[in-house]
């Protein structure tokens, strides 16, 4: 009997010691999983590239002073014509990015072959043959856009200038001759586009632009004197595909 009580007491003491030891143990630490990181495309940086596409011109020229036998138009008479052709060149610029907003400056220079020929048939089938063409165009614009990781949607606007040429020839006697002149026209441009970051450095894009220009006085000197016109590239529209290389543009880890 005494032996049974002793065994029972020993068991109670052992259980109490075990419980006390368990209470003294520190709680099992919980390790929180680290947040997942994902890559965000960084549009900031300097870039250079090229573009190619098509353009459409509206050209207008109006006679201002017909003081020779050569000219068949009286003052304020003239013509207008549409022309289209290949449009391509190079761009250079810099982007700044804050959050998902991008601002930038860009300069472009482009060659174009928009041209046309028109005959004034007042005194013959090919009397007063006019020919014109737009040679090359330059822009300096600001850009502003919003990003969706590798995608950039933007608008742009600023200065535009174009070199234009006008020539006339008369093949109907007695006043036979020819003359030409060319000038640089200042204007403005607006546009919109989309770009996609293919890699950290290579960017592909599509862009549409509209440009309008001021009027310049042209003096088409001939062997009969001067044939004077006000010439205006009324507007030039272009749509191009772009490829650019962006320097120092790493992907940024964002949490």
Automatic annotation (TrEMBL):
Q: InterPro entries, from UniProt?
A: Beta-barrel_OMP, OMP-like, OMP/PagP_B-barrel
Q: Which Pfam families match?
A: OMP_b-brl
Subcellular localization is given as: Cell outer membrane
Any one GO CC term of this protein is:
cell outer membrane
| Keywords, ordered alphabetically | Cell outer membrane, Membrane, Signal
User: Could you tell me which residue ranges the Outer membrane protein beta-barrel domain spans?
Assistant: 24-223
Entry annotated with the keyword Membrane: yes
- Top-level lineage group: Bacteria
Which segment of the chain is annotated as a signal peptide?
A: 1-22
Membrane: present as a keyword of the record?
A: yes
Question: Coiled coil where?
Answer: none
Listed Gene3D superfamilies = 2.40.160.20
The entry's family comment says: Belongs to the Omp25/RopB family.
Its name, as the record gives it, is Outer membrane immunogenic protein
Q: What is the lineage of its organism?
A: Bacteria, Pseudomonadati, Pseudomonadota, Alphaproteobacteria, Hyphomicrobiales
């Amino acid at each position: 009997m005494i032996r049974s009580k002793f065994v029972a007491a020993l068991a109670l003491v052992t259980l109490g010691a075990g419980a006390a030891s368990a209470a003294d143990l520190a709680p099992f630490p919980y390790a929180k999983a680290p947040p997942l990181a994902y890559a965000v495309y960084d549009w900031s940086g300097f870039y250079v590239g090229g573009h190619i596409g098509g353009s459409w011109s509206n050209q207008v020229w109006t006679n201002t002073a017909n003081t020779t036998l050569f000219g068949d138009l009286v003052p304020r008479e003239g013509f207008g014509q549409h022309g289209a052709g290949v449009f391509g060149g190079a761009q250079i610029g810099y982007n700044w990015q804050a959050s998902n907003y991008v601002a930038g400056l860009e300069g472009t220079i482009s060659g174009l072959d928009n041209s046309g020929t028109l005959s004034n048939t007042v005194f013959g089938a090919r009397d007063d043959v006019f020919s014109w063409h737009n040679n090359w165009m330059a822009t300096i614009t600001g850009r502003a856009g919003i990003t969706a990781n590798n995608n950039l949607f933007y608008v742009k606007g600023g200065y535009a200038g174009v070199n234009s040429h006008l020539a006339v020839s008369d093949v109907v006697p007695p006043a036979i001759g020819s003359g030409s002149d060319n000038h640089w026209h200042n204007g403005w441009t607006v546009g919109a586009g989309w770009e996609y970051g293919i890699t950290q450095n290579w960017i592909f894009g599509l862009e549409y632009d509209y440009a309008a220009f001021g009027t310049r006085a042209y003096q088409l000197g001939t062997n009969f004197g001067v044939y004077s016109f006000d010439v205006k590239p009324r507007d030039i529209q272009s749509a191009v595909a772009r490829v650019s290389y962006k320097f120092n543009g790493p992907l940024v880890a964002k949490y």
